[in-house]
Amino acid sequence: MGNFQLEDFVAGWIGGAASVIVGHPLDTVKARLQAGTGYGSTLSCIRTVYRRESVFGFFKGMAFPLTSIAVYNSVVFGVFSNTQRFLSHHRCQEPEAGSPRVLSDLLPASMVAGVVSVGLGAPVDLIKIRLQMQTRPFREANLALKPRVAALGEQPAYQGPVHCIITIVRTEGLAGLYRGASAMLLRDVPGYCLYFIPYVFLSDWITPEAHTGPSPCAVWLAGGMAGAISWGTATPMDVVKSRLQADGVYINKYKGVLDCISQSYQKEGLKVFFRGITVNAVRGFPMSAAMFLGYELSLQAIRGDHVATSP
After folding, report:
1. Does residue 298 contact residue 2 with C-beta atoms inside 8 Å?
2. Alpha-carbon gap, residue 82 to 72, rounded angstroms
3. Do residues 277 and 34 make contact, with C-beta atoms less than 8 angstroms apart?
4. What secondary structure does DSSP assign to 85-116, as a single string?
5. What is the pLDDT of residue 82?
6. Sign of CA dihedral 248, 249, 253, 256
7. In angstroms, rounded to a whole number, what is the distance separating the alpha carbons of residues 45 and 29?
8. How far apart are CA 89 and CA 49, in angstroms?
9. Measured between alpha carbons, how far is 116 from 80 in angstroms, rounded to an integer?
C-alpha cells in the first residue's frame, strides 16, 4: 500500500476529461461574470452568450483544457493519492486494507496536491481565460483605456491556444504564463483541502459499513457535494485570479494580487468578490461528480475490483 501507484494518474486523466466536458459551458459563464463586462446575473450572462455567440460560445476555448486539464487532474489526483498513501504507510507502517483515513494524512496530501496544481494549472488556466475573454464587450470596455487597443478593433488578440502561448511568451516572457499564479496558490491550497477531505468523509459516511467501498451513487453524490463546497468557498480568490489572468489581453490594469483586490473593492465593493459564486457552486457539483466518478470507475476497471476505490 505504501508503494507508488501509476493507475491513480491514469484514472485521474479519465476523470479530468469527463469533468471538462461536463463543466466547460458553466466555466465560460463564470469567467465572463468575473472578468468581463456587460453581464448582469448568471441567467443574464447565459442569455447574452447564447444570443451573441450561439451554443458554441459556451464551448469557446474548450479544446485546450480538454487535453491539458485531463493531464492536470491526472497529476493532482495521482499526487494526492500517492502522498496520502505514503503518509498512511509511514504512520502505521503496515496499514490494513480498508483502514480508515485520518485528517492528519488527508490535510498535508491535499495541500501538496494544491501546490503541485498551480505549477501545472496556472498556464492552462491563463490560456483558457484569455481565449474565453475574447468578446466584443470586453474589447469595447478596454478601448478607451489604452491607445494600442483601438488598433486591434474587432480582431481577436489570439487565433487559438498555440498562438495564445506564443503571443504571451513573446510579449510577457515565460513568467507571463504564470500571471495570477500567486492568487491561484491562495485559492487552490485551501481549495483542495475542502475538495478531497469532504469527499473522503462524505463517501465514507454514505457508504454502509457492510460495503468495502463506495457505490457509484455514493461517489457521485459525495464528489458533487465536495465540488460545490470547494468551489463555493474558493470564489473570492477565484475572482482575483480570473481578473489577473484576463488582465493583459488588451491592457494591464493590475500590479499584483493586493492591487487587484484594492482596485476591485474600490470600484465595485465587497460584493465583487462573490461574483459568480452561484455558478461556481452549481458548476462545481456536476464537474466534481463527473471527476470522481470517472476516477473511481476507471480505477475499479484498471484494478479489476468489484467496488470503487477512493483516492
Report:
1. no
2. 15
3. no
4. HHHHHHHHSSPPTTPPP-HHHHHHHHHHHHHH
5. 93
6. negative
7. 7
8. 50
9. 10
